[in-house]
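Researcher: Re-running this chain for the archive, since the previous output was lost when a drive failed. Same request as before.
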Amino acid sequence: MSGRDRPAQLLRNLPAKLAALPMILTALVVFIGCSLWTVVHSFTKSRLLPKLDFVGLDQYDRLWSTPRWLVSIENLAIYGICALILSLVLGFVLAALLDQKIRFEDGFRTIILYPYALSFIVTGLVWQWILNPDFGIQNIVRGLGFESFVFDPLHNPDQVLFALLIAGLWQGTGLVTVILLAGLRGIDEDIWKAARVDGIPAWKTYLRVVIPMMRPVFATCLVLVSAGIVKLYDLVVALTNGGPGIASETPAKYVYDSMFNKQNLGQGFAASTMMLLTVLIIIVPWAMFEFRGKRRD
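Model: Regenerated C-alpha cells:
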C-alpha cells in the first residue's frame, strides 16, 4: 500500500469506526485498565482498602500455601475436565440428532436451549431442590419401594462435585448444542451424498470428515465453556455454598471471600490474577488460531 492510499484506507467505513470507538475505549479503560490495576495491587499488602504498599510475591506465596486455594484448584480441574468433555460430547450428539430434520425441531431446540436462559442462581436452587434427600430424587425413589436407595450428593464430600457437574451440564449443554448444530448446517450436502454413494457409514463420515471440518466451531465452544468453568461462582453459592466444608470450593468463591468477607484485598487480587492468567492461556491460543485461519482464507 502506497503512502497516498493510507489516508483513504483509514477514512473508509468511517461511520462504522466512529460507532465502534466507545466500545474500544471501554475495553481499553475498563477491561485492560482495571486488569492492570488488579495485577499491580496483587503485589501489595492491601487489606480493607487498596494501597501501594508493595510486598513482592508474598501474596502469591501465601496463596499457594493455603489449603483452601489448593482444594479450589483441584476442584476446578476435576469439574473443568469433566464438564468440557461431556458438554462437547453431549452437545455434538444432540446436534447430530437435531440435524436429521426431525419433526418439531424448533420445539426441541427451544427446550434444549431454555436452561441456558436461566441464571446460575436459579439453576442452583432448582437442583438443590431436586437433589435434596427429603423431597428430591432420593425421596421419590424410596416412595416407589426402594427403601435402601441413597442419593445425597450435596452432603457427601466425595460426590458433591458431580452434583455441580450435573447442574452445570443441564444449563450449558444447550448452548453448545445450538452452536454445533449451526456448524453442522454449514456442511455441504454434497459431502453426505458422496458418502452415501460410496457406502461410508454415517458414524465414520462424522469422525473422519465432518468433525475435522468443524474444528473452528469446536474451538469456539471450547473457549466459551472453558471461560465459564474458570469463573464458576454463582452456581456453587446457590447449590452448595462451597460445602460440605470446602469440598466444592472454587477459585472465584475464594476471591470473593478474601476480598469481601475477610477484607484481604491483596490476597483476593493475587487469586484473581491467577484466574486472569488462566483465561489468557485459554483465549490467546484460540485467538492466534482464528487469526491464522483467516489469513490462510
